[in-house]
Design a protein that fits this description.
By secondary structure, the protein is of the alpha/beta class. The chain contains 27 helices and 11 strands. It folds into 3 domains: about 280 residues, no CATH class; about 170 residues, no CATH class; about 50 residues, no CATH class. A 7-stranded mixed sheet has the order 4-3-11-7-8-9-10. A two-stranded antiparallel ribbon has the order 1-2. Strands 5-6 form a two-stranded antiparallel sheet. A hairpin with a 2-residue loop joins β9 and β10. The protein is globular.
Amino acid sequence: MTKILKQIILIIITICLFIPLIQKEFTFFKEKPLKGVFTLAEKPDSMLENWFSGEYQLKYEKYFNDSLGFRPFFVRINNQISFSLFNTITTDNAILGIDKVVLDEKYIFANFGLDFLGNKYLESQADKLKFVQYKLKTDYNIDLLVIFAPSKVSFFADKIPEKYSKIKNDSTNYSGFVNEFTKKKINFIDFNKWFEKIKDTSEFELFPKYGIHWSYYGAILATDSLIKYMSNNKSYSMPKLTIRQIILTDSMAFVDNDVTTSMNLLFNPKYSKMPYTKFDIEKSSNKNIKLLVIGDSYYNVILNTGIMQQICLATDYLYYNKTYKINNKENKIDYNNYFNLIKKYNYIILLNTELNYWNLGHGFIELMYRELTPEMNTLREDELFTFYYKSEKIDSIKAREKAKNIINNTLKDYFLYKDSRIELLKKRLLYSFINKQNLINKAKERRVSLDEMAYLDGRYLFYDNLFLNKTREEEIRKNIELNILIENIKNDKQKLDKLKLISDKTKIPFNDVLLRYAKNSMNGNDNENELQKNNSKKIEIKQENVSGKYNENEIQVVIARIKNNKVWFDNIVQQAKEQNISTADMLRKNAIFTIKNRKK
């Protein structure tokens, strides 16, 4: 009897093992697909071509795992166990904070200042934005407004796990920009600060527990405040928004459960009741705002309310300044015609949340600054710039000899912060709990401690991603020499006064005028024909970058990936030797080739 029982159990187990294979081939049961952004592997073809390289086997293994019967069900069981028993979730970059509040790890890094760009850079961006704001208003009667959308991490700062506190930095892009914008009187609304202020007094949820974006109700409150702000400008006719009713429900809508769906659990977690509003908008025949918003996904929530579409004569949206959303259709932006696009509107809003403050406007500031400063490309046509070329030429040999000791010492100073920066990157890697397993695997492969592996990766990021590798030493020296020259100019009152006069007249930020003068002086560009040739090249290069054909950031990302792939990198080193060119040039050629083929 015992033997028969064992055989029955064995048969049952065997059948259970084969059920997923049977389901894969015949699909007896309709399965609920997994939610989220991922790509299932397709069945590979060309077996004969790829068999001996091993590529076919790897592709088929991935396809087999992704298409196995009942896979979504088993994934949900695994995710449910992780969530219920171990307080973890498998959604990319998302973590569970205190009281199981879902937070995005990338936002924590931004909130703690790990993407801080430095005060000088933020000041420079603010100067450019101030100039763009001034020129758009005076020359084209276009208003410009910056909106700091709230961050869930800032809002729920008390829910951040204690283990992240070790990587907190005192300076952030948010605080830096707010200080600069306040000093320079740049138009902005700080919803980040406002949401924190009303957090304890708000009757309803401003952020959902299991979402990343502001709640539908929070977005409507912000939109109402935005309308009131825009109404202060008497030249615009703004219909009145009235919140008529607030309905509380535990049925999540819009993006209030955007993380919950991608968590792929067997049972949805318990929600707090979320508020959804019914509103009325005053009818008006005098609509005159043509609104363009450039921003991240936080504006999608406002867009979903439908309010701005009703109060504006026209409203469009540049998603990350890459795609043009109009009539629910996405179109790629023609950067060659970018300024003509901008001139169609009379009100422009740059809206970003904390994660994207480092890239405020997503290139808008730089694109418009180039467009609105033709003087910077045709300096010789302006009388005020004639002293650029009549000023004394710098004796480059003498200057270099004189600066040698200073440069060598300054170069050492330049790298003084290297150790602390690498230490910061190391901490970021060690406390990035989502990516920590990758670090552990690399440490095992290289047979080093986890701490040492984090240091090695941090050092790589410092030298490679910040472009401070040894091959750039000469470029660094030139930058240091340029800074020394700028300091000398600042000590020359006569030159300084002339530069300030130029800045005042053109409204171009003084630092940009100073830098251009220093570069011209250092390069000895006193020949008009040669200078015109150089300026033409600069314009040409800028237009190529703006077209987005081969974006420099994109190229550098691909180069970093190549370097991380040993087989790929070794192959490129060999190609460089065969073609008798440098490895750096070969890397760049391969990166551009990869991007070109990817875009086909």
